[in-house]
Amino acid sequence: MALVTSRPQLETGLDRDLPELARSLGAAGADVATVSWDDPRVDWEAFDLVVIRSAWDYSERVTEFLAWAGRVARLTVLANPASVVRWNTDKRYLAELAAAGVPVVPTAYLAPGDAIEIPDDGSFVVKPAHGAGARFAARYEKGEYDTAAAHIERMHAEGLTAMVQPYMARVDETGERALVFVGGRFLHAIQKGAVLAPGTAYDDEKMPHPDLRQWQPTAEELDVAERALAAVPGSPELLYARVDLVDGADGELPCVMELELVEPNLFLFLHADSLPAATEEILTAAR
Question: Which residue out of 242, 258, 263, 281 is catalytically annotated?
Fold first, then answer.
């Protein structure tokens, strides 16, 4: 089987899960290769299972990445499926989740050519509909219309649809919670601090997972996460999933910030006891 990453991850080793997962699968008897998704030398048909792990540069090359996913899915088993990859790489899926009754962060979408409309009643976030690792994302305060508009214009110039969301203020107190599922079952959860600080420019480097710690999800968080997964079109079999949640306004029920089905960090390094379960689910998918 192949564990798919990107060239930058192979060079930097930032994906802390990757070597341990490869080691665990190998110890269980699997023949494992760790390869970059855009390596032209890879014979994808030679693998019985291709698992997307840390292709974290895909958001800068979405068209190319989707073409790769479709091609690999025609040659072998891709996890997650290419149809899921296509759907989940465009964050307009949040509108579909909302239509299905899943609580999500309220979101407005501004495609290139649309008039720029920005909230005037509090803090807000601007980020691209195709993005990862807080790329092109920034937090703005009331009155920063011109700076935010320039940010959106920059994204439009690159052909990107902008997302505008209210800043969910309780994230500064309670952080984000990420619930990880493998093989359709809840595996573990983490909590992290707020990613977007006031005054940080959209093109500045950001730490995507600050102040990481283990987390025990509430019943409400598990319910929202399961509802989000149940709303994925076509009810596909998902080898892995991560549901990122934040508190709603005024302490309301948690809401989905993102549903990560393409290349989520699973935080196995923070939950070492989860490695055997993740290994077994991947082996089961390969069989």
Answer: 242
